[in-house]
Amino acid sequence: MTDASPAPRWPGSVALVLASSTGGVGQHVRSIAGGLTEAGASVLVCGPAATEEQFGFTGVGARFTPVEIPASPTPGDARAVTALRRALADTPVDVVHAHGLRAGLVAALARPTAPLVVTWHNAVLAKGLRGAASRLVERIVAR
Questions:
Q1: CA separation for the pair 94, 81 (Å, rounded)
Q2: E strand or H helix at 49
Q3: For the whole model, what pTM was predicted?
Q4: Number of domains composing the chain
Q5: Domain residues for 138?
Q6: CATH number for the domain that contains residue 40
Q7: What is the pLDDT of residue 93?
Q8: What is the pLDDT of residues 62-71, one digit of tens each?
Q9: H/E element holding 26?
Q10: Residue-by-residue DSSP string for 46-73
């Protein structure tokens, strides 16, 4: 016998933030976006335009706003912070959930008024200067 009770409803709103992705993180965010919209939530996905083209977040009921967050730090990160800050001002949400260290850093620097949750999807394995810089970014995001 199976339980046919309806899935719990959550009428809240969430922003899912991701950096450039060609695989796992993008698929994961699409899955979460679909589950949240099915549960009644309003979902905004913010990430590079190429991620919407590849994963189709709007196809599972989410709204999408392009925020160009590359996989590696660039001088353009300030533009990504500004774009995310603008997207969150235009569409207030109850929670911001960033996926990965790069998206987490941009979201933390955007200073959302909603609580920020960051999921690390990959461990920092780099050594030397790059590893030290990545560990510093981890500490900034964790705070």
A1: 19
A2: helix 49-55
A3: 0.86
A4: 1
A5: 13-142
A6: 3.40.50.2000
A7: 96
A8: 999 999 998 8
A9: helix 24-38
A10: EE-HHHHHHH-GGGGT-EEEE----SS-
